[in-house]
Design a protein that fits this description.
Aldehyde Dehydrogenase, Chain A, domain 2; alpha/beta; Ald_DH_CS_GLU; Ald_DH_CS_CYS; binds nicotinamide-adenine-dinucleotide; 2 domains; Aldehyde Dehydrogenase, Chain A, domain 1; globular; oxidoreductase
Length: about 450
């Protein structure tokens, strides 16, 4: 079945239909209209899968996709143009240009944490670049995956864009096929499996992965704002965000104030401590993993949970060490461990203990400190005096480095990701320079030199 879909997409791609500008624009419109048509069902499936509220669903899923579609529609004509570049002296009067072309048939594999956005945002890039696509959403958000199937089958024929649902075995079958591009979002471990499968066909990949993203708060920072923005990053989607601040490095002189302000921020987010609107932990395995991470740690705020709805209260854990279990892997939950420091260099050394993170956040009013951290730590992207919101600007390419990913997307970068740039030299037939032809004599060499 998978093979049939791939073959029909390759045939459809060969027809040339997807390359046309009007076709791409119309397809982006169809995607937008289908999302809007199913908006109520998207909201109810997000509620069922994650307890995600309507507002959070719009802000973190639907709104981001609609903005991306508009951005692509505004710029597509310009992006599709061939670009003339300088011709070297030896090639005059020929002409050189670079022309964008779609890769062909692409595979998009997505995780569960932003189940709609992480399927459809890369799809926008695939459509605007003129590819056909197969989408494999996550098996852990079955209601949303069903709606994604409806959105897509309502708008597009299978030979152009289709959804294959399933888990490891279905993805493994898909990965046996020869795709022209694979776009994967998920964990670093599965990223390695995807890259290894892609290498069998020399298929290029984008890997959008995770990691432990630090937040640093120095002694010059606005503590009230820092606490509010870090709390936002840890609470939205219950911390199940690839760019959530994973742990906090804070100057010891402002730690107590930060803890008070963090508490105040939570009180302002959840009136009367009603956290019923907060997203739940995705499944039993992750819920138990997070509960275990809190065990034996010094909890200074939060720490309660609710087995019935798999809910974990936003939690602060004081002074963890490098060997604490919570510092081993990406937390992916609403728990923030705190490590205090005296000297900024300690932070840089501390961060170097981990793989390169997807994001880094520095809260500071001190230009030198900001430059020191952003200049010496390697990370995918991030914010100064904020968390997470860097990913909402289509002018900022989004992606990791090292263990947190390969490649990037959003905005023009999405178009580039799904595009092969073909370099072409158009030779003139008016005259022919003889030097390049054999025989290669010393006399020729002297003239050329
Ligand atoms: P995951 O890697 O377990 O799963 C991602 C996808 O891969 C799913 O569709 C799943 O069905 C498939 N998959 C899982 N195991 C597989 C296997 N053995 N072989 C083939 N396919 C397999 O990730 P997840 O738990 O769904 O998502 C959480 C991870 O994703 C976190 O590490 C997070 O940081 C990362 N993430 C990264 C970004 C980003 O943009 N960089 C965004 C969201 C999540």
């Amino acid at each position: 079945m998978v093979k049939n879909i791939v073959n029909s997409q390759k045939e459809y791609f060969s027809s040339g239909a997807t390359r046309d500008y009007n076709f791409r624009m119309e397809s982006l419109n169809k995607l937008k209209n289908s999302i809007l048509k199913y908006e109520d069902e998207i909201n109810s499936s997000m509620k069922l899968d994650l307890n995600k509220s309507k507002a959070e669903t719009y802000i973190t899923e639907i709104g981001i996709i609609l903005d991306e579609i508009s951005f692509h529609q505004r710029h597509l004509k310009k992006w599709m143009k061939k670009k003339h570049v300088k011709t070297s002296m030896a090639q005059i009067p020929g002409k050189c240009f670079i022309t964008p072309e779609p890769y062909g048939t692409v595979l998009i594999i997505s995780p569960w944490n932003y189940p709609l956005q992480l399927c459809l945002l890369p799809l926008v890039g695939s459509i605007s670049s003129g590819n056909t696509a197969i989408i494999k959403p996550s098996e852990y958000t079955p209601h949303t995956s069903d709606i994604i199937s409806k959105i897509i089958s309502d708008a597009f024929p299978k030979e152009y864009i289709s959804v294959v649902q399933g888990g490891v075995s279905e993805t493994t079958l898909l990965l046996e096929e020869k795709f022209d591009y694979i776009f994967f979002t998920g964990s670093s471990n599965v990223g390695k499996i995807v890259m290894s499968a892609a290498s069998n066909h020399l298929t290029p990949v984008t890997l959008e992965l995770g990691g432990k993203s630090p937040a640093i708060v120095d002694e010059s920072a606005n503590i009230k704002l820092s606490a509010r923005r870090i709390a936002f990053g840890k609470v939205i989607n219950a911390g199940q965000t690839c760019v959530a601040p994973d742990y906090l490095l804070i100057h010891k002189s402002v730690k107590e104030e930060f803890i008070t302000e963090f508490k105040n921020a939570l009180n302002s987010f959840f009136v009367d401590k009603d956290m019923s609107s907060m997203v739940n932990i995705i499944n039993e395995a992750h819920y138990n993993r997070l509960k275990n991470l809190m065990r034996d740690e010094h909890i200074i705020l939060g720490g309660t949970f609710d087995d019935d709805r798999k809910f974990i209260e936003p939690t602060l854990i004081d002074e963890v060490t490098l060997s604490s279990p919570i510092m081993r892997d990406e937390i992916f939950g609403p728990i923030l461990p705190i490590i205090s420091y005296s000297n900024l260099s300690e932070c840089i050394e501390y961060i170097a203990n981990f793989e390169k993170p997807l994001a880094l956040y520095i809260f500071s009013e001190n230009k030198e400190n900001i430059a020191k951290v952003t200049g010496s730590c390697s990370f995918g992207g991030g914010c100064i005096n904020d968390t997470i919101v860097h990913l909402s600007n289509p002018n900022l390419p989004f992606g990791g480095v090292g263990n947190s990913g390969i490649g990037s997307y959003h905005g023009k970068k999405s178009f580039d990701t799904f595009t092969h740039y073909k370099s072409i030299f158009k030779q003139s037939s008016i005259f022919d320079v003889p030097f390049r032809y054999m025989p290669y004599t010393d006399k020729k060499l002297n003239i050329i030199k």
